[in-house]
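Name: Transglycosylase SLT domain-containing protein
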Amino acid sequence: MMVPACLQHEAMQWQVPVQKLEALYHPDPKAGIGVMGIPTAWLPVLEKNGFTVFQLQKNPCANIRAAAMILSAEHAEKPATAPAPACLKQAATAYHTNYSILLTIYQNAMNSKPAQGYGVMHIPGQWLPILRASGFPEWRVKHETCWNIAAAAWILSAEGTQPPTPVNVTQSTSGIPNIPARIAADAELASRSSGVPAPLLLAVAWQESGFNPQAVSPKGAQGLMQFMPGTWTRFGHGSPFDPLDALLAGARYLRHLALRFHSWRLALAGYNAGGQAVIQAGYRIPPFQQTQRYVPSVLSHYQKISLESR
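Structure predicted for Transglycosylase SLT domain-containing protein:
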């Protein structure tokens, strides 16, 4: 009896004996779901891991993948808990997150009762628009385990990247700094003159300087929006240490980048790494660890400020 080539691949992925997986395979099983005869009692766990009944019935390789997961789980110390997929470690590496923390989130989600959120990692619905803007297909985040895990790793990276410590700025209960009233008002003025959303300008200021107008980085970036002197000469007027001048210049620069790349996500990447770096990366976020952490971090700040201001 010929078995699909994916059977051996799934045995390796889930670290189960090929022979045991082959013994379950039958093109026309008398009981259960699909070619592996998946017991219906496993459906709740499988659905948490992104499988659908339709997939299990119509897609032999998805059915084999589910059977391999079940075999692995049944030989684990906790039989009712599926082991972490291999892509969990891959996601931790790709998004520079702590694997142990990501694994703990996965295990807690698997052992908890169904909660509001999507997929095995219980992705909160409010993150979906930001994930879409960052290249994550919504359907896959909702329904495919590895995409869901990758999205969770991306969010963990965003939330784990802290801006520079602000000077004399306290934190609200939501984790957002209490933005000085003058800076908030200046951001609204800069927004009206440029069309760049005020919460996005504030998110960049939070990430760049922690709302410190006098900040100077070791590399020489200056002020609230951390302009290098060369970029300030092109986009700035007045002083980079004046909050309104800095926000107006930041708005001009972000608008320039957004019109060039037709994407706020790429505009933020260009703000951090330079527009030429985005072009050289094929109009994608450049493969620099700092930039790949910077973009989700600013988008996370943007989401929090937008929600707070409603």
